[in-house]
């Protein structure tokens, strides 16, 4: 029997990330910002890791923080890197140690580790440990802590501007549980009642963002907060771009599709994808579709990947 993520009530409960240190330039910091000291481990399929890939590009950090990309297939032992002679476009070996599995890095960091081996991971090559594996915190670190090491055209980009922090925090507070995690809570439910409750809440909150974006578009603006790209756009984009290709069918989030039923969310997503390289170049629909449909055998036992929707994202 493959893994079931729900508890006995049929509800999916996500576990908190456990490595929660911070890169900081404050005196005495255990993890000071330095070029080429830290390394990111990601999956191109994963919406949480995708947040960090977008941020790494937007902030011009590609030559400062290295990157290893796991294969899209996640089995009962978790994520693995590309094996010798194996082909999987955009996946890599582990560039630091050449290990086969992400779990080996978790055990290197803590031999008694007992949790799941999740991406994203920010690894410190100096102390050989995991600094942090929580995407919402990694996003904030990449936003501020390397600013003195990068070109001013990148350091001036602020994804969590102080003028909008209250508004951003308030949006994160309902977008995360109802939308980002809402698709997982719908898809991993193993009883009818929790599924219906979660999918209903998900669509109520998609309608709420649709309304916000309608007003923004009417005012000639393109982003969710203020008139500037913030972490709210990044955090929502990585869920919405997976919605029609995967969540609608695989996670049974099928009370509507972004392309047919949410014109303003669709317009906002297409704008980010087609007009911002950091979004388009980090969105890999093959990794996304293959990962979910061929890794969650409890949901899709034969691992058949549906052909549609075609296209994965509509033209502008
Ligand atoms: N709270 C974490 C969640 C990360 C997470 O759940 N990642 C999934 C992939 S989408 C993972 O690596 N799962 C591995 C597993 O469950 O074994 C974050 O936002 O960084």
Task: Explain the overall architecture.
It is a single chain. The chain contains 13 helices and six strands. The protein is an alpha+beta fold and 316 residues long. It has a domain at 162-283: Glutathione S-transferase Yfyf (Class Pi), Chain A, domain 2, CATH 1.20.1050. Strands 2-1-5-6 form a four-stranded mixed β-sheet, with helices on both faces. It is globular, with a radius of gyration of 19 Å. 40% of the residues are buried. The mean pLDDT is 97. The structure holds glutathione (GSH).
Main features:
6 strands, Glutathione S-transferase omega-like 2, single chain, Glutathione_S-Trfase, cytoplasm, 42% helix, Glutathione S-transferase Yfyf (Class Pi), Chain A, domain 2, binds glutathione, globular, GST_Omega/GSH, alpha+beta, GST_Omega-like_C, four-stranded mixed β-sheet
């Amino acid at each position: 029997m493959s893994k079931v993520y729900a508890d006995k009530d049929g509800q999916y409960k996500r576990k908190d990330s456990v490595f929660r240190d911070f890169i900081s330039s404050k005196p005495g910091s255990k993890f000071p910002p330095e070029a080429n000291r830290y390394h990111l481990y990601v999956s191109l399929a994963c919406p949480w890791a995708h947040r960090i890939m977008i941020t790494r590009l937007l902030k011009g950090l590609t030559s400062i923080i290295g990157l290893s990309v796991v294969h899209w297939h996640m089995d009962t032992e978790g994520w693995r890197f590309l094996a010798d002679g194996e082909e999987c476009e955009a996946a890599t070996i582990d560039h630091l140690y050449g290990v086969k599995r992400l779990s080996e890095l978790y055990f290197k960091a803590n031999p008694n580790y007992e949790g799941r081996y999740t991406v994203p991971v920010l690894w410190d090559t100096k102390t050989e440990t995991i600094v942090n594996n929580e995407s919402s915190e990694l996003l904030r670190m990449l936003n501020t802590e390397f600013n003195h090491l990068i070109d001013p055209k990148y350091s001036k980009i602020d994804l969590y501007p102080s003028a909008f922090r209250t508004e951003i925090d308030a949006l994160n507070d309902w977008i995360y549980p109802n939308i980002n995690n809402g698709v997982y809570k719908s898809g991993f439910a193993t009883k009818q009642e929790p599924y219906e409750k979660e999918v209903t809440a998900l669509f109520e909150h998609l309608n709420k963002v649709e309304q916000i974006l309608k007003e923004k578009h009417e005012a000639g603006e393109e982003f969710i907060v203020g008139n500037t790209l913030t972490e709210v756009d990044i955090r929502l984009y990585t869920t919405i771009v997976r919605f029609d290709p995967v969540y609608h069918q695989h996670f049974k989030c099928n009370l509507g599709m972004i392309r047919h039923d949410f014109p303003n969310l669709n317009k906002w997503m297409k704008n980010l994808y087609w007009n911002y390289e950091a979004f388009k170049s980090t969105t890999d629909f093959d990794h996304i579709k293959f990962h979910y449909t061929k890794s969650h055998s409890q949901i899709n036992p034969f691992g058949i990947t549906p052909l549609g929707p075609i296209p994965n994202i509509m033209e502008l």
